[in-house]
Amino acid sequence: MRAIACIAFTLISAFTWSLWAFQSALPPPARPSYKPAQPHGNTKIAIAWLSEVSGEVELASGFGKEFQRPLNHTAVIQGSIIRTGMGRAEVELQDQTTIRVGPDSVLAFPRLELLPSGTKASTVRGVRGTIYVSLMPDYIIDTKGNDFELAFGQQQLHLKPSGHVRLEMDRNEARLVMRDGKGQVSGPFGSMELAKKRTFTFNLMESSPPAVVKKVNANPMDKWDTMAVAFHRHEIASPSDWIR
Fold first, then answer.
1. H-helix or E-strand containing 71?
2. Which residues contact 143 (CB under 8 A, 6 or more apart)?
3. Cα 48 from Cα 45, distance rounded (Å)
4. Which residues on neighbouring strands pair with residue 60, listed in sequence order?
5. Measured in whole angstroms, how far is the alpha carbon of residue 143 from the centre of its chain?
6. Does residue 34 form part of some domain?
7. 243 by DSSP, 3-state: which?
8. Which of 23, 27, 58, 100 is surrounded by the fewest CB atoms within 10 Å?
9. Would residue 17 count as lying in a domain?
10. In angstroms, rounded to a whole number, what is the distance separating the alpha carbons of residues 153 and 38?
11. Which residues contact 125 (CB under 8 A, 6 or more apart)?
C-alpha cells in the first residue's frame, strides 16, 4: 500500500507541476495599442459626432466596452472605437475635420482635446480597413494652432489645412495616398513629406521607409469620399444656401 501511495503522490506532483508550467507559459492577455490620452492641466475633452451612419456600424465608448448600433449625430468621445461590417460611417470633429470609415474597418479615437488656447488636438488611430481624412482649407475656417494626427502601426501622420488622405490597411501593410494638400509622416524610419497623387506603402512588420510609387489605384469608396468633401466645404463656406 505504501508503494502505491508513493506512486500516486509522485504522479499527482508531476501533473501539478506540468499544469503550473503550462499556465506560466501562456502569453499575457493582449492589451490595446491605442489608449485614450489623459488631458493635462486645463485641457477639456472635445466632442465629435457621427454625421452619417449607413449599414453595419457599431460604436463603443472605449476599449472593452460593449459595441452598440449608433444613430446619426451620436457623440464620439475620447476613447471611442468605431467598427464597420457591410457599412460606412462619417465623423465630424469640432474644427470641421471629417473622417470617413469604409466597410470592414476599425478606427479608434485616443485623443480629442480642447486646449486652453481654444485650439484642438486630435489623434485618431487606424486599426484596419479603409479610412479617409480631410481637413478644411484655411480660407474657409481658421484652424491655426490645431493639431491633427492620424496614427497607424508605428507611424504618425500630421496633416495641414486642406490635407486629404486615404488609408487602406490590414495586419501587415498600410497604403497611404495623399489625395490633396500637404502632410508629413514619421515613424521608426524617420520622417518624410508627402507628395500628392502618390501611394506610400508601409510594411507594418518592419521599420523600413515606405515604398513610393507615382500611381494611385482607385478604391470603390473614392466617389463617396470626393462627394462628401465637396459637400462639407460648400456647406461651411456658404451656410445660407442650406439654412433656407
1. none
2. 95, 120, 135, 136, 161
3. 10
4. 81
5. 21
6. no
7. helix
8. 27
9. no
10. 21
11. 33, 34, 107, 108, 109, 110, 150, 151, 152
- Global pTM value: 0.81
> Is residue 222, in this structure, part of any structural domain at all?
yes
Range of the domain at 115: 44-243
Q: What are the per-10-residue average pLDDT scores of the chain (244 residues)?
A: 43 38 33 49 80 97 90 95 98 95 98 89 97 92 86 96 96 96 95 94 96 96 96 79 42
Is the residue at 6 inside a domain? Answer: no
Q: How far apart are CA 238 and CA 48, in angstroms?
A: 22
**H helix count then E strand count, the chain:** 3, 15
CATH code: domain of residue 141: 2.60.120.1440
158's grid cell: 500630421
